[in-house]
Amino acid sequence: MIEIRWDWIASHLDDVAEKTWQHLQLLVIPMVAGFIIAFALAVLAMRRPGTVGPVTAVTGLLYTIPSLAAFAVLIPITGLSLITAIIPLTTYTLLILYVNTVAGLRSVPPEVNEAADAMGYTRTSRLLHVQLPLAVPLIMAGVRVAAVTTIGLVTVSAIIGGNRFGGLGQFITEGLQTDFDTKIYLGAVGSVILAFVVDGALVALQRVLTPWARARAERG
Amino acid sequence: MEQLVAFLTEAANWQGETGIPNRLIEHLAISFLAVLTASAIALPLGFYIGHTGKLQLLGINIANIGRAIPSYAVMVMLLPVMLALAPVLGYDPRLGLRFLPIFLAMVLLAIPPILVAAYAGLQEVDRDLTESSRGMGLTERQILTGVELPLALPVLVGGFRVALLQVIATATIGAFLAGGGLGRYIIDGIARRDEGMLYAGVLLVAVLAIGTDVALSWLQRRLTPRGVRVATEGGVVADRPSDA
Hints:
The complex is a heterodimer.
Chain A: H1 6-10, H2 13-47, H3 52-64, H4 67-73, H5 75-78, H6 83-106, H7 110-118, H8 123-161, H9 169-178, H10 181-209, H11 211-219
Chain B: H1 2-9, H2 20-52, H3 56-68, H4 71-89, H5 93-98, H6 100-123, H7 127-135, H8 140-174, H9 183-191, H10 195-223, H11 226-238
């Protein structure tokens, strides 16, 4: 039967910490890069509504490509450097982040925008100080889905990452190759736990970013 | 690029067990079988939740958990279990290595989108319509099959679209666990440093996924009743960007 060697895990905590750290790096770098691109495209969508269709189609196409294919495609070019994982991980975040940011910016009621205009806000400062804060709930909903998806995809990237990348997923690959169940479960359960922890942290971040929502909830 | 063309034009790569047609059939067979199995579980439960409004919390929770747990993690966690159960339940250990963990992970992954589409599709149907159907004397079964289902069909196809795409992607990963399908070319291409094979795998898998997506989005539009189509097109006007 399946036996989990807790003593092995206890004596390899530094390895667990190192791979968790890499998992987080492969989460944060693509998320930040993806958010900058998606946000720029969403701002463009507010000025030029005609761009929404084509941008959604292209990011949707990138999102449709099965993950293993996306990770494999760069191997002959960038080899086993982190870039091989970071580029596809970034393109996978684009659709979710873009669609939610556009929906968030558009959810601002017209009378709020008109009030801001009447108060003399420029288009840029209205975007940053009025529309963006009000769009936070929808943007954060997108960020949460993208983050959880990315954590799962980092695990998959270990299939082609050898001993170079894949975060906690590397435990899975090593466990499969050496027939060591403890490593398989450590990698699989570890990446699921990481997803729940990061999701919880993002919920907390959203509360900090939208203090008015909390005040409203407390007033009832 | 030359290696890719060479691989795709080599006659031997279009024949036998390792040929492209057979790998494509393997990929499609396991994907459709997984979605069918998932439907058998998710559709009745989803219709029940959508029609009666009961067990909604269960539906939402299944959807959320399904989204958070990656298919690859499920697959590898099932592998030792399937291998350990092989002598107990009396199936070929190779089935536990090659087929069952991949297949079960695909089924589990396909359940949430179909379940959510089934109950959300029914819930979106206008309450007035079901009430007036009931007033006209239709039975609950007639309301479900004659009113709710036709109106929910586009949403339902949308759920199948998501499920099928995820399942196709997971079948690709399954090649790493000695599974068949088009993912074999990617895994073997990397192992043999055969760029032609690797790129052929990437191309075929991408074309399969994108083709499936295009076909089902076409079906989704086709199945939308004309009245509903007009109504949503009218809705786009209200959706005008606030800057305009």
